[in-house]
Amino acid sequence: MQYCQSDTKPTRRQAIPIFRDLLLGALCLLASTALMWSWTEASPWVPLLAMITYLAMAGLILAFVPFHWRHLGWANRLTLGRGLLIALLTGALADPELLARYATPLGALALLALMLDGVDGWVARRTSTQSDFGARFDMELDAWLILVLCLALLLLGKAGPWVLAIGAMRYAFVMAGLKLTWLTAALPESRRRKAICVWQVAALMIALQPLAGATATNWLAGSALVGLAGSFMVDICWLYRHASTRRPEGCRTGSHS
């Protein structure tokens, strides 16, 4: 679905509902990090990193939300709720001892974020509010969650630096697209891509649990890496094959969303 931006920015009155959603999210995160800090005796860097993560996310939302939108809608609010959970998990990276002591509850947070990944899309379809912004918002959170889980495995010493390749692969793909513009073309919907994403999160969550030894962790993370690399290769080959059928960039009248 392609959005056309209006010639003028939204008025203050139009922007208020979106600011209200983001402010409510910030208050919920403050309350959650305060409870986490008091109950777990976590490092003060935990709530600080969580809040910095959320503020960065909120800033990106305000920067990329379509001009004519007056509110986020329920589907994007659910995605924002996922963002709160992922911000909490990001904050936990500031205290490796917290990660080790509370691996199971933190894994439950990651599982909840994974489950909500399907709910927000269902709500968008039921309310006919699917959008390019919502799909991109959802995808970026998935990518960040996977990178956070990879960093957690590295900080806990359960996997070597190679595990970061899982979380960094998508960002490397985006960077490559700055030079090779054919990589930025829209890809068709793919159940294979979605299944690989779910398996990555599930495998990394299981690997983080205390019961997962070194061998199990390497097999789980390794399978996620191999599956992701294979999925990217399939998509890159598809984009390369179809690149020659497109008109030169300067001759296009439209743009890819």
Automatic annotation (TrEMBL):
Domain of life: Bacteria
Sorted UniProt keywords: Membrane, Transferase, Transmembrane, Transmembrane helix
A single cellular component GO annotation: membrane
PROSITE patterns found in the cross-reference section: CDP_ALCOHOL_P_TRANSF
UniProt GO MF annotations: phosphotransferase activity, for other substituted phosphate groups
InterPro entries given in the database record: CDP-OH_P_trans, CDP-OH_PTrfase_TM_dom, CDP_ALCOHOL_P_TRANSF_CS
TM stretches of this protein: 21-39, 45-67, 99-116, 137-156, 195-213, 219-240
Listed GO biological process terms: phospholipid biosynthetic process
Family membership noted in the UniProt record: Belongs to the CDP-alcohol phosphatidyltransferase class-I family.
Name assigned to this protein: CDP-alcohol phosphatidyltransferase
